[in-house]
Amino acid sequence: MVDGDTIVLDDRSEVRMVGIQAPKLPLGRRNFPEWPLAKEARDLAVDIASRRDVVLWSGGSDEDRHGRRLAHTYVRDGQGGTIWFQGEMLRRGLARVYTFPDNRACVADLLAQEAAAREEGLGMWGLDTYRIVNANELDRLNSREGSYELIEGRVREAKNINGRVYLNFGTNYRDDFTVTISPRDMKLFRDAGIDPTDYEGRIVRARGWVRLFNGPSIDATHPEQIEVLR
């Protein structure tokens, strides 16, 4: 077992569990701080999968640039049933939903498991580090550059400028939180029948890596990064 979202099979190949992100261990990386609950996530992964047969299913790209296999993983429980690894990690509150443009299968089920754990305050959802951030909490967002966050708020303005969409959550785009969608990534939204300018006025939850450019922002590369709440 490597960590809470990566396992090693008996043929020594590594499997990265698509659709989730568990708290990260340093794993030999210099100056990489251990995330809260990283050891607990790894221990749960060991409990679920260690020394058990697994079935791998790929709903998208099946290998990453590091040569790891990418898969949804089903663990045989020894009693004729299976445990969905991703679902169990989310259900226990020791992972968050984390998707990619080329791996977006089972998102509705993943989000449902995450929401159930969050409702009960399990695992990560009991810590301030991982809580959902309001889009108006600019001091917090400005201090979280380079971190993966879930951010909620009302889209005050949605503009398409030369093919790039800006979802502005405040009145000052130079300081307030923004979600951006590049012209290249707009294709996935169009393919899903989504016009992101229709998010204007809606309360949404965006998830992704925070960067600082004209205030805190997230780049949305695929529709599953944005949940419409109301």
TrEMBL record:
Keywords: Endonuclease, Hydrolase, Nuclease. InterPro entries: SNase_OB-fold_sf (IPR035437), Staphylococal_nuclease_OB-fold (IPR016071). Gene3D superfamilies: 2.40.50.90. The keyword Magnesium does not apply. Signal peptide: none annotated. SMART domains: SNc. One of its GO terms (molecular function) is hydrolase activity. It holds the Pfam family SNase. PROSITE patterns: TNASE_3. Residues 1-127 form the TNase-like domain. This is TNase-like domain-containing protein. It comes from Candidatus Phaeomarinibacter ectocarpi. The lineage of its organism: Bacteria, Pseudomonadati, Pseudomonadota, Alphaproteobacteria, Hyphomicrobiales.
